[in-house]
Amino acid sequence: MRRQGYDVVVCGAGLAGASTAYHLQQTHPPVRVAMVDSRPPLSLTSSRSTECYRDYWPSECMVNLMDRSIAKIHAIHNQLMESEGREGCGLSLCQKGYSFFADTDEASSRLMGSVDHFHRMGRPVREVRADDAVGDDGLSGHGLDVYDGPESVRKHYPWAGEGMRGCLKAKRCGWLDAQRLGGFFLEEAKRRGLEVIRGEVVGVDISSSREGQVVTIRRDNTASPTQLSCPTLVLAGGPFLPSLLSLINAPPFPLPAAAAAALTLLPPRVFPFLVNEVHAKVILKDTLGLMPQDHPNAGMQLYSDSQVLDWPAVFREDPQGFLSLLRETEGGMPVEMELVDRLLGRLADGAHFRPYRPDRLLIIWDVMHDGLQVTHPPPPEPSLYTSLYPEVAVRGIQRLIPRLSAYLGQLKQLCSVDGGYYCKAPDNRPVIGPLPTQPSVIICGGLGGFGVMASPAAGELAALHVMKRVSGWTDDSGASFPSYTEAFLPSRFCSEVYLNEVCGPSNAGKRGQI
């Protein structure tokens, strides 16, 4: 069996792995890095992203992580623009903000409460009145704009439903070309010596070699496996991270004695604190141009209220007939009466959309797929409700943009559906750092829902953990970790108090996307 030696092996060629490899190759001199994946780089979840970024988060550690990441995104964009000249587009940044709408007093109060939280973190807050001019901050936008009252909302968001009572716009938010970002990481890393190896990881031995970890891979074009030895191993496999962890030939994680009780509240999983969820989006052809994409506020639009969908009366009068219709149109997808009851009842908040291309809208409201179980390893393509999901998603954003009702009855011709997977931790925060009992194994994952926007800072942080091992850093050596480092360590799940805090009965059912 052939064996090759490296300083670091990165398992996973998505954005998290590419960013980690890129930041490792920025060291002087660069370490010798191999990146391994059974698929072409950036071809799984990284290719199915919503491609967005935001600095609006409920916790200070996430705000600080995203501040760092967005700063790096802007720097990479500027670097590409400079190298491409006048014809270049860089990362195709579009920063028109995230706008959160409310049409009930409860949701409006929640939004206004988050303004105080954001203000305490030193972010500028501006109240926008109906008679204020509609402004365009472009890539310099920062802080929050508050639109309090229907008149202000309608003036600045002319497509919004008349019932909207308030809106909060987080301005340092937008979207980018995720493939271009990942391509930048890969090309720069390869230019400095990164070796990309196509092969499936079939074993991880952390005890048998004096050279450190031994990763066994199987390549498509070779009969015998290849072994890659390395002092430090990075697992950045996205939705394959739980499966990679299960290959480690030693207990990878010390659970607290009472952790089992807390974990019973979470979905089944191969590894204790990570779970995969299906992520799906709808692309709607806006053939009538109902969304004015050149408007300064035409950014990500989010509905902050729960809602009951306005289904045709016949569906409510005959739920069994609705069930039969769904089974007929959805092929092999699981369709039971429980799904019908859920769709006819009150559904969670969070329906959102953004302009996607000049004549497209990207819509997400995953009340359809959030209960689906994902096997380990996950299938290459997730099973999706391709017929029903567009109907649910478009009806879900009608409160935000009522004029889209013109497309009902035509959605089969106008919509497409695709998706991937979110790999998430129970606290909805990244998992970045060494395994507690195996410090030579660094995780960079748990980025479900924010992988694109977090990848620059997440890869940088994972690389810092690697270099601490490779360079022999000590706490007093002058090496600097960012303030958010501890909040994302895998070791936080060694704490029974923390596990009960994020997984216990008071948080049951609250694992939705941040």
TrEMBL record:
Cellular compartments per GO CC: cytoplasm
Entries under Pfam families matching the protein: DAO
InterPro entries associated with the record: FAD-dep_OxRdtase, FAD/NAD-bd_sf
Annotated FAD dependent oxidoreductase domain residues: 7-254, 346-463
Superkingdom classification of source: Eukaryota
Record's keyword terms, sorted: Oxidoreductase
Keyword Oxidoreductase: yes
GO molecular function: oxidoreductase activity
Function of the protein: Required for the assembly of the mitochondrial membrane respiratory chain NADH dehydrogenase (Complex I). Involved in mid-late stages of complex I assembly.
Protein name as catalogued: FAD-dependent oxidoreductase domain-containing protein 1
Originating species: Vitrella brassicaformis (strain CCMP3155)
